[in-house]
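Write out the 3D structure for:
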Amino acid sequence: MKEKDIKKLLQNKLKKSFSNVKIFEEGIDLETQLEFEKMTKLFIENNKEKTEVFISENDLFNESIETEFKKNILIELSFSDDVKAYRLIERFQNECIPELKKWAALALQKSRAHIEHSLSNEDKVYISSGLGGLGDKLRYFFVLSAKDDLLFSDLHKNILKKEIEFTISKYQGIVEDILFYDYYVTIVCLVSLHHSLDKIFKNILDDCNELGDFLSDRVIATNTEKINEDTIEKILNEDPETIQSFEQNEESDFFGIDNFDDDDEYFDDFDDDDFDDDDTPF
């Protein structure tokens, strides 16, 4: 499985280079992100003539109001660069039903992005992925496997662990978790957008194989989700249906990319009567 150079992928999607990137820490599953973006487009289409938004706080917290209606309210709030809107989403996320937790988290991310852009007026790129991230680093789930599916020996495990930690650290990454199975190892780590995934894992493969020639060139890489054992084994054993499903997810993995320019503003004003008086930024 060929891993991607995420920086190049982002630049291709945005049709330009970038230097100011913000990665949201909380991971949001792909299904929620796709639904959010679909409803956002519909919301924009249906509200092109509106220049001002009036949100009823009572509707958002009313238990009798349907979930789908509340989703639309959160989308509407997420367009605001008003701290009051951010605070309202934040309070709702803390109190809402589990079904809306991730939706509220995504709305909160979007709202924060609008506020930060409004305050700095800089051209920024905001990224939301399935596994989240930290600073300029995205969180990834990787799988490396043994040649011919042979069992890892204790020596192999020691070599792998040291080489993984050393190489990822060398590229200013952070290893969060390493788990060994019979013939493959899973890695959860944070990697900067400014470093090539290809180079990092080629280094690990080359260095390990210089010491024992025990790793195959099969690499699974995703920032969408932590893959379960059954799916990993099917991918490594080249099950066509599983690979197709995995690759389709990876093709649509980005997730949320918000590129804010000066003409990207949508709704600017909210009805002050609908919110609390707390104007404190975050």
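The longest helix spans residues 101-120.
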